[in-house]
Amino acid sequence: MRQFIVPGAIVALAVLVAASLVWAASVKIVAEGEDYVSIKPSMVRTTTTAGGVSGKKYIQIPLRRPHATTETGPSDDGNARFKINVPSSGSYRLWLRAWWYDACGNSFFVIVDDKPAVSVEDPTYQTWHWVKGPKLTLSAGTHTIRIQNKEDGARLDQFLLTNNSRYVPTRVETRTPQYILSK
Ligand SMILES: [Ca+2]
């Protein structure tokens, strides 16, 4: 029996050590939509007194009339650009805290550094909620994130990056200024 007990204990110890290392290295980066270093129309910053918006500000592609007739393209690359300092390299999940007008106003393009644009969207409308974005492989250091027009009627309150693949944000998150560059 004894030879089976000892390896089991070693495996359990190794799992505990590995788990604590993962825990120690867990990173969560939270930025406000209004933390951009530059903004280009038709992306605009909006201040609100309505509840449920972190910092009382968000960025948006304002609703147009008629709605959903001038979709994305070279004609409107309105965007907000952010600079983030990633403390440790790894695989990060991007989340957007968004508010979508309807099924024709429920997405943004996300462009990380010089990578191709990725559409982030989901089918939950007219309420602030977290939308799961792409998984990103990021080196330690500065990265640029661009949130760009894809459809009018899309708003962004916050975005979050975490290397904890099990983390699912559910409410307003606390901003992490230590990871946000202002220029
Ligand atoms: Ca905000």
Describe it.
The chain is mostly beta strands. The chain has a single domain, classed as Jelly Rolls. Helices cover 13% and strands 41% of the residues. The protein has one helix spanning 2-24; strands spanning 28-32, 38-40, 44-47, 57-61, 79-86, 90-100, 107-112, 118-121, 129-138, 141-148, 154-162, 180-181. Strands 1, 3, 4, 6, 9 and 11 form a six-stranded antiparallel β-sheet that branches. Strands 2, 5, 7, 8, 10 and 12 form a six-stranded antiparallel β-sheet that branches. It is elongated. The mean pLDDT is 91. Bound molecules: calcium ion. Calcium ion binds at residues 32-34, 53-55, 57-58, 157-158.
Instruction: Report the span from N to C terminus.
Output: 63 Å
In total, the number of domains comes to: 1
Number of strands: 12
Q: Which consecutive residue ranges, at least 5 long each, have pLDDT under 50?
A: none
Helix-strand pattern, N to C? Answer: HEEEEEEEEEEEE
Mean pLDDT level: 91
Q: How much β-strand is present in the residues?
A: 35-45%
Tell me, briefly, the overall form. Answer: elongated
Q: Which cofactors or ions or other ligands sit in this model?
A: calcium ion
Number of helices: 1
Q: Portion of residues in helices?
A: 10-25%
Do you know the CATH architecture? Sandwich
Which CATH C-level class is it?
Answer: Mainly Beta
Round the Cα radius of gyration to an integer and report it.
Answer: 20 Å
Helix and strand content put the structural class at mainly beta
CATH topology: Jelly Rolls
Look at the structure and name the CATH superfamily: Galactose-binding domain-like
* Main sheet: strands, sense, barrel: 6 strands, antiparallel
